[in-house]
Design a protein that fits this description.
At1g16640 B3 domain, four-stranded mixed β-sheet
């Protein structure tokens, strides 16, 4: 009977008990299809999605680069350290956050025992309860154990996973004086560097800690040995990272990212003024070194005849959104209306040079803007008290996270404000081919990277008219041809989509600021796009992503030359060779704190000569 057929989830759970070590993802997918055949065009896609979003609950941990490991194998005998706060000890509690993500992040089905086998009671506090006013975070009641073991503030809890199904931890006390810090210094350094690297490769602003921490521990040689510092302590002490709500990791070091709760267990310490000054001084030095490298390579490329040495700055002036003003403190271009449109510079040499027709077109959108504003106000009205104010004060990516926390409420209260999007129609509206309906699927990034495509060494356009949308549409035509070409030469569908989508960044830039198509790209505009426009205006980017964009653009122009659309692709090759410099710009910009008194100077120096 059909209702007795195995589901993908049930098959994955069974398979997770059959493997005792890392395994290729494709092997697991094939085993699933053996039990549940599929006639779909891409039968792996659905299974991959289940593993991507529900893998941990199904018993699987993604290690990256196309490898999986059963979660029980990754956790068995794993050891880690907890250092309760003074308030935790005083309350006789161990907050669940101390055990994350090894236990409790996605489920609280957890058993904690001491060395004698005595179980610790779990308490999920009700904030209305009188005791909750002192300690409102769920966790384990260790009051009797603290007393019995002689635990005092500063001591550690060494936890060992003695069983993964059901999750069972054994806890032991280690006195502060007995902690062998010298023995764990290397472990701590390796752990924090690995966390920084994984967060830096992420495609989103906030990453759940289990997606970062668990894969590191799963393959670490010290996972079952004497444990080092709690990973949360390493993160909160490192200025390259931030821990948000005890659950999320980010490398965007801004205090406003602390969004969700005043009951964070691992609160970042404020940076003393002296240390902030020292950090800014170090950043100035790092930026100056980068700028010397940039000047040197630009001069070399000018001497080679790749360009005339003149910097282009169209994106530093006003674009088609001239009636908005960009807040330079907000990554991704937080926009707000300025007082008067007439007061803005409209220099034809620096921008699009809007005429009367274009200006009328801009203001024709006033009615649509009013409708969107009304919908925005309606959504804000149903949020809990204080949440709307949080959203208004947040940066764009922060606001997305806040809204996501209340999405179910919004969908229930205001379903009419959430129309179904038709991506095919949307791409047709702007003149782009749909590219197999999924050119814009973010999940393709990881699939392409896992296949190792980004390290691949291989490497007819009409004249544009006066309409930027037309230029963008013509570029979209070429990108569609590039997508088909990649498929023809054997690239996977995910790789073809990702590389095609990467080129859209430059296509949009050329159309918006220069009214050009991709066939008219050159060294100066690509330099401006990669080293000024992209770092400031594109959300949730990363050093890895900018390198991938450089690779995609290089391969696109190689394709264009091969097809005879352009005669020379040397400028794209030259900018590809500068991809590490572009990645350094992204890395440094993420480290410039918006609350620093030196923000403006750091910003201007990083984006020289565009800010001159």
């Amino acid at each position: 009977m059909s209702n007795q057929e195995p589901t993908i989830a049930s098959i994955l759970r069974v398979l997770a008990r059959e493997y005792d070590g890392p395994v290729e993802e494709r092997q697991v997918l094939d085993h699933v299809l053996e039990h549940r055949p599929s006639a779909a065009k891409n039968p792996y896609a659905t299974i991959r999605e289940r593993l991507r979003w529900d893998g941990l609950t199904l018993g699987w941990l993604r290690l990256g680069r196309g490898k999986l490991v059963p979660l029980r194998v990754a956790l068995q005998d794993l050891r880690f350290r907890c250092v309760p706060r003074a308030r935790d000890v005083a309350a006789g509690m161990l907050p669940l956050a101390h055990l994350q993500p090894f236990a409790g992040l996605r489920s609280v089905e957890l058993i904690v025992r001491d060395v004698a086998g005595v179980a610790m009671p779990f308490i999920d506090h009700d904030p209305a309860d009188s005791r909750s006013s002192t300690f409102a975070t769920p966790g384990f009641d260790l009051a009797a154990w603290y007393l019995r073991s002689g635990f005092v503030v500063g001591d550690s809890i060494v936890a060992t996973v003695v069983a993964a199904e059901p999750m069972t931890l054994r806890i032991e006390r280690e006195a502060a004086a007995d902690v062998r810090r010298s023995a764990t210094a290397t472990q701590d350094a390796e752990l924090i560097d690995a966390i920084v690297a994984r967060v830096g490769r992420a495609q989103v602003a906030l990453i759940p800690c289990d997606e970062v921490i668990l894969p590191i521990f799963a393959v670490a040689p010290w996972r079952t040995e004497y444990p080092g510092s709690p990973w949360q302590h390493l993160v909160t002490r490192d200025d390259r990272l931030q821990l948000v709500d005890d659950i999320f990791l980010t490398n965007q070091s801004h205090p406003s990212l602390r969004l969700f709760s005043s009951e964070e267990v691992f609160e970042p310490l404020p940076v003393p003024e002296g240390e902030r000054h020292a950090a800014d001084t170090a950043l100035f030095a790092e930026i100056d070194a980068l700028q010397r490298d940039l000047r040197h390579t630009r001069e070399q490329d000018a001497d080679s005849g790749l360009w005339n040495g003149q910097i282009q700055r169209a994106s530093a002036a006003y674009s088609t959104l001239d009636y908005y003003h960009e807040d330079p403190h907000a990554r991704g271009g937080t926009l707000r209306p300025v007082d008067r449109y007439d007061d803005l510079d409209d220099d034809d040499d620096d921008g699009l040079g809007l005429g009367d027709q274009e200006t009328d077109s801009l203001f024709a959108h006033g009615e649509e803007f009013a409708r969107l504003q009304a919908a925005h106000d309606e959504l804000m009205s149903v949020l809990p008290p204080g949440v709307a104010e949080q959203i208004e004060a947040a940066r764009p990516e922060e606001a997305e996270v806040i809204i996501a926390q209340h999405l179910n409420l919004l969908l229930t209260k205001k379903p009419h404000l959430f129309p179904i999007l038709d991506l095919r129609a949307s791409t047709e509206d702007i003149g782009l081919d749909p590219l197999a309906e999924s050119l814009f699927d973010p999940a393709d990034w990881q699939e392409a990277v896992d296949e190792g495509e980004w390290d691949d060494p291989e490497d007819d356009m009409l004249d544009g008219d006066d309409d930027p949308a037309s230029a963008y549409a013509e570029s979209g035509d070429l990108i569609g041809q590039f997508h088909d070409y990649l498929a023809e030469v054997g690239k996977s569908s995910a790789t073809a989509r990702v590389r095609s989508r990467s080129v859209l960044v430059y296509a949009e830039f050329l159309a918006s600021y220069y009214n050009r198509t991709l066939a008219d790209g050159d060294y100066a505009t690509l330099d401006e796009c990669l080293f000024y426009y992209y770092p400031r205006r594109v959300l949730n980017t990363s050093p890895r992503q900018i390198r991938e964009i450089c690779t995609s653009i290089k391969q696109f122009y190689s394709f264009m030359k091969e097809r005879g659309v352009i005669g020379d692709d040397r400028f794209a090759q030259a900018l590809w060779r500068r991809r590490d410099q572009a990645a350094r710009v992204i890395q440094i910009y993420d480290r410039i704190a918006s609350d620093s008194p030196n923000f403006e100077s750091l910003f201007a120096r990083l984006f020289q000569p565009y800010t001159n």
